[in-house]
Predict the 3D structure of the following.
Amino acid sequence: QTYYTKEDSATRPLLLSETSRCQFAHRSKDFKHEAHSDHSCVTFDTSNVDGSHTLSSSRLFSCTDFPNQDRKVEDLGIGKNAKGVIAFVIASKYAVVAL
């Protein structure tokens, strides 16, 4: 689960369930200032009975209507089964994903 706030922690954090990391692309100084509020998160499409997750269930999704969570799973150019996301980071003007 990931807590988030859109006002640099000035408001009470809200919770995104079934996620492990989220990033707003426009937080990087190299993204254009007028960028819309796209964000990307590593999310899990299944969970075990005890609430834990497996690597094979992790995916990257993006959302343009944050926080309404109209999620789009990113296939990363390798098809619909782009699972096993290990790491995700915004580096300069690029999003870097490790599978």
Summary: The radius of gyration is 14 Å.
